[in-house]
Design goal:
Length: 469
């Protein structure tokens, strides 16, 4: 029943999305040629021919960006980021397709790029508004007791309590808990008004006599030997079953599985950037962003180069070995901000406040992060990314991997010029443990939207920082 409802809702959502795309496209044409009164190269009807390809393309991108998953517990920020990502990829594909086709299909050479740019912005805005209206309507309905999913828990554990806490705190999700089955709690025992109905042996009888939408398996860790029998009963009933493990301190909040020739493999850590599509998108953003940044900051880099060379002896660019993706080392570039020193003395520690090794010019460029600008060329080479955990020297990597749990997880993605830890103030001589916490959050929750947010915050929090010495 749930699958049928979800399938119907998805079909309705596809129709709504197609209508929104059409409306946004027409509004873009009206704004460009009627409101701005630009000279019309083509009629609206001629422009609308392109919708034959644009609508299917965008709908497929929305599907690829997980925009047709259930909105019951999906966050607005994640959905908004996916909308921006899908539309950005879509408009780039459309513009790229128009270029070779303009000599084949005569009208295409007269299509306005500005009109497509207006369509990009309007479609994002309308799509976000439409989806939030749908979300608001659904949650209103659920709060009134309609469109509910009836749920029963099998097993009383910390996972069951945590699940109940979240459901009670979010009535807009539309879950109604029918009760709990457990072999170690007496029938009638309640947790926040949710009663234990009986033992797990009564599961089959309860499923036959009650109309349930979902079953949540929340067995305590010591009771997992019962799992096979209980799953068999659940599968026989045809009721949608979900598994809430009672060891959430070990697995991540967003685990994912792989199919190893029919054997499901649960990965201990969810890393979105292991997905090929995500990797390609991020790499494209890195290349374009690095080229644009090099052009914009070239005057600053030129002045810095002159000041470094004329105020102290030594090379202009300082190369230092750092550990990057998959624990591979690379040479990271920086403008030299210290007096030339031996490799032995350099290894002793990172820079601290009032470090005597730092030159006068070096203090300024370190405080403003100008010394990091040569890393834009590391990004073009593929050693680094615009956003990611900051890379560390091999000496400290070996030290921290023994002292700090999960430290090495940061090397599952490319290191970054800036990162989530840095915009939250954790750079320089600050807590390495807190830095890793922020890095792990970034790694497990990566989206294109989060990258854009970090780049935006870098201009306000990342360049000039009290912890940069």
């Amino acid at each position: 029943m749930i699958k049928d409802n979800q399938r119907y809702f998805n079909r309705l959502h596809v129709v709504i999305d197609a209508v929104v795309i059409c409306i946004a496209y027409v509004l873009a044409w009206i704004y460009k040629f009627l409101i701005l009164k630009d000279q019309r190269g083509l009629t609206l009807a001629q422009y609308c021919v392109a919708l034959i390809g644009i609508i299917p393309l965008y709908l497929m991108l929305y599907l690829a960006c997980n925009l047709y998953t259930s909105k019951r517990v999906q966050g607005r920020r994640l959905e908004g980021g996916n909308i921006v990502k899908a539309n950005t990829i879509g408009i780039l594909i459309v513009m790229a397709a128009f270029f070779p086709l303009r000599d084949v299909i005569e009208p295409i050479k007269y299509y306005s790029r500005w009109m497509l740019a207006y369509f990009y912005v309007i479609n994002i805005v309308l799509e976000i508004i439409a989806r939030n209206l749908i979300r608001w309507c659904l949650r209103k309905i659920r709060r009134k007791g309609f469109n509910l999913r009836h749920l029963i828990f099998v097993g009383y554990s910390g996972a069951a309590e945590a699940f109940i806490d979240r459901i009670l705190a979010n009535p807009q999700w539309g879950y109604k808990i029918s009760g709990i089955l457990d072999d170690n709690k007496e029938p009638g025992y309640t947790y926040k008004g949710i009663a234990v109905l009986g033992s797990t042996d009564e599961l089959e009888k309860i499923l036959e006599n009650n109309r349930l939408d979902e079953i949540a398996l929340t067995l305590a860790l010591r009771e997992y030997y019962k799992l096979k029998r209980i799953v068999a009963i659940c599968e026989k009933s045809g009721v949608h079953t979900k598994f809430v493990p009672d060891y959430n301190d070990i697995i991540p909040t967003r685990p994912y599985t792989e199919d190893l020739l029919g054997l499901p493999v649960v990965n201990i850590r969810h890393v979105p950037l292991t997905n090929s599509f995500n990797m390609i998108c991020k790499r494209a953003m890195d290349i374009v962003g690095a080229i644009v940044a090099i052009i914009i900051f070239s005057p600053v880099m030129l002045v810095t180069a002159v000041l470094v060379k004329t105020t102290s002896k030594g090379p202009l660019i300082y190369k230092q070995e750092r550990v990057g993706l998959h624990n591979q080392t690379f040479q990271m570039y920086k403008f030299r901000s210290m007096e030339v020193q031996s490799a032995k003395s350099e290894k002793r520690a990172w820079t601290v406040r009032d470090d005597p090794r730092v030159t006068k010019v070096g203090r300024v460029i370190r405080k403003t992060s100008i010394d990091e600008l040569p890393q834009l060329f590391n990004i073009l080479k593929g050693d680094m990314s615009l956003v990611g955990p900051r890379p560390e020297r091999p000496f400290f990597v070996e030290k921290f991997r023994e002292e700090i749990p999960r430290y090495m997880v940061k090397h599952q993605v490319r290191p970054g010029l800036t990162g989530w830890a840095q915009v939250n103030g954790y750079r320089g001589d600050t807590s390495i443990k807190k830095r890793i916490e922020y890095d792990l959050y970034y790694i497990e929750n990566w989206t294109m939207g989060l990258d854009i947010k970090i780049l935006f915050l870098t201009f306000f929090k990342g360049f000039v920082n009290k912890n940069a010495y």
